[in-house]
């Protein structure tokens, strides 16, 4: 007979399990809404014909999307999942972007309010500004259905863009809502208010580059996307955070590097607050810290655009950059950390960029982490991401997060590649530390300078983080 602790765990999982593998599931049980996170490189979703590769460029090739069906009858629209902002809006102006971004923009779908019998105009407008890009929206309410679910949310408030700048998709902001950042119930609030979920919490597993698909579970977890227990991290209250905005700020203990065939080395002054932002392609860290990490990848100077160009062979090296939080270490394989830009001659860049204003962990970190956002208790639960199937599970109470364990094996390989170092790599071996953390504070009302715009366009960064002004 299994030990009592194992039986209790199995009982808990059976009690809260809300489905089988997503591919087999027709509808969701009460309390659990799980949706695929679609990578924009997934040709099965964003090509006109399946199997035909859509040649994307600029920013749209590195973002993560969910499909919503809006209105009556439903109209399918893809929106970018963004933990760094707070509101849902749709219908960017595709004529204001070019190249692959414009193609993607058209194929992501549009919502036509004139074709919905359940839409109501609220007669109010707003300008939303992000780290890059902006949208002028008019608020409406309408019914929203969720991909793979029979659940429909009624009279959900969201924005319909009348014009936009430097945006190629709508955004589903899943940060804090009513009473903190908005004067109405945002999408996450509505899921709880309409009893689609029992708790105001969700889990995010972006999936690896090669997987091209992840999963978001509103009101629950997917125990086949991690191993062992989850580590609890308190969200730093807005009044104590660097930018004084209610975001998912947490304290990071350190960053270190584990090169192949060499001991782990911790970077000096890497104990800083960071926030988790799925709307940012890159991770932004203080300049001296970024420079030190780049040096360990064999790059002493950034290119003319301010980015650290790397040898693409590093994506096959079995090393990791390690982020530590409250005793938990999330190991990010080189392959997941490095930003690969396709082309006739592919280009590779360090997935960390210097910033004196923002300290955030974007997609180059989040692909390797399994993260639970508990908005009820202002906590983050985190561990190393894995993938051993699909077992989405509804939470009866947020306190269940303290006892749930993942089903995957404990060992996760960094990459399926070689372990030999690249010539010139690790040129700073032997140093005990690397630089200083710099200024991590984000002053109220700040935004990227226009010089950042050119840099972001050139490398494909989407910084979908609401700027408060």
Automatic annotation (TrEMBL):
<dbReference type="GO" id="GO:0006508">
    <property type="term" value="P:proteolysis"/>
</dbReference>
<keyword id="KW-0378">Hydrolase</keyword>
<keyword id="KW-0064">Aspartyl protease</keyword>
<keyword id="KW-1015">Disulfide bond</keyword>
<comment type="similarity">
    <text>Belongs to the peptidase A1 family.</text>
</comment>
<keyword id="KW-0732">Signal</keyword>
<feature type="disulfide bond">
    <location>
        <begin position="312"/>
        <end position="348"/>
    </location>
</feature>
<feature type="active site">
    <location>
        <position position="277"/>
    </location>
</feature>
<dbReference type="InterPro" id="IPR033876">
    <property type="entry name" value="SAP-like"/>
</dbReference>
<dbReference type="Pfam" id="PF00026">
    <property type="entry name" value="Asp"/>
</dbReference>
<protein>
    <submittedName>
        <fullName>Aspartic peptidase domain-containing protein</fullName>
    </submittedName>
</protein>
<dbReference type="InterPro" id="IPR001461">
    <property type="entry name" value="Aspartic_peptidase_A1"/>
</dbReference>
<feature type="domain" description="Peptidase A1">
    <location>
        <begin position="64"/>
        <end position="383"/>
    </location>
</feature>
<dbReference type="GO" id="GO:0004190">
    <property type="term" value="F:aspartic-type endopeptidase activity"/>
</dbReference>
<feature type="signal peptide">
    <location>
        <begin position="1"/>
        <end position="23"/>
    </location>
</feature>
<keyword id="KW-0645">Protease</keyword>
<dbReference type="InterPro" id="IPR033121">
    <property type="entry name" value="PEPTIDASE_A1"/>
</dbReference>
<dbReference type="InterPro" id="IPR021109">
    <property type="entry name" value="Peptidase_aspartic_dom_sf"/>
</dbReference>
<feature type="active site">
    <location>
        <position position="82"/>
    </location>
</feature>
């Amino acid at each position: 007979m299994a030990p009592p602790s194992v039986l209790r765990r199995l009982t808990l999982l059976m009690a809260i399990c809300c489905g089988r593998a997503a591919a087999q599931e027709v509808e969701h049980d009460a309390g659990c809404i799980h949706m695929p996170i679609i990578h924009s490189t997934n040709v099965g979703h964003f090509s006109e014909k399946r199997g035909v590769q859509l040649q994307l460029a600029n920013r749209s090739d590195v973002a993560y999307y969910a499909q919503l069906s809006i209105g009556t009858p439903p109209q399918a629209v893809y929106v970018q999942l963004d933990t760094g902002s707070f509101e849902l809006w749709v219908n960017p102006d595709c004529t204001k972007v070019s190249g692959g971004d414009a193609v993607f923009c058209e194929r992501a779908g549009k919502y036509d309010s004139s074709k919905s019998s359940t839409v109501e105009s609220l007669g109010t407008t707003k300008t939303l500004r992000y780290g890059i890009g902006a949208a002028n929206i008019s608020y409406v309410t309408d019914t929203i259905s969720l991909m793979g679910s029979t659940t429909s949310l009624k009279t959900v408030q969201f924005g319909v863009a009348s014009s936009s700048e430097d945006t190629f998709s709508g955004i589903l902001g899943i940060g804090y809502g009513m009473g903190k950042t908005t004067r109405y119930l945002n999408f996450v609030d509505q899921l709880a208010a309409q009893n689609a979920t029992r708790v105001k919490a969700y889990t995010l597993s972006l999936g690896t580059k090669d997987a091209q698909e992840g999963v978001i579970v509103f009101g629950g977890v997917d125990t086949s996307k991690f191993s062992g227990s989850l580590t609890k991290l308190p969200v730093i209250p807005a009044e104590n955070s660097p930018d004084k905005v209610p975001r998912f700020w947490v304290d990071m203990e350190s960053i270190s590097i584990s090169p192949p065939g060499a001991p782990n080395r911790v970077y000096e002054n890497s104990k800083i607050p960071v926030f988790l932002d799925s709307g940012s392609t890159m991770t932004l860290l203080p300049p001296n810290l970024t420079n030190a990490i780049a040096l360990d990848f064999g790059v002493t100077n950034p290119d003319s655009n301010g980015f650290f160009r790397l040898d693409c062979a590093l994506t096959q090296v079995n090393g990791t950059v390690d982020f530590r939080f409250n005793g938990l270490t999330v190991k990010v394989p080189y392959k997941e950390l490095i930003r690969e830009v396709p082309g006739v001659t592919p280009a590779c860049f360090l997935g960390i960029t210097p910033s004196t204003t923002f300290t955030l962990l974007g997609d180059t970190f989040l692909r390797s982490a399994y993260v639970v956002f508990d908005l009820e208790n202002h906590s983050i639960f985190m561990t190393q991401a894995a993938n051993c199937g699909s077992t989405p599970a509804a939470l009866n109470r947020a306190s269940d997060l303290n006892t749930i364990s993942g089903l995957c094996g404990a060992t996760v390989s960094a990459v399926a590649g070689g372990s030999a170092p690249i010539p010139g790599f690790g040129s700073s071996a032997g140093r005990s530390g690397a630089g200083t953390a710099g200024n991590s504070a984000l002053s109220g009302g700040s935004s990227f300078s226009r010089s950042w715009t050119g840099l972001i366009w050139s490398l494909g960064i989407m910084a979908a983080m609401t700027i408060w002004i």
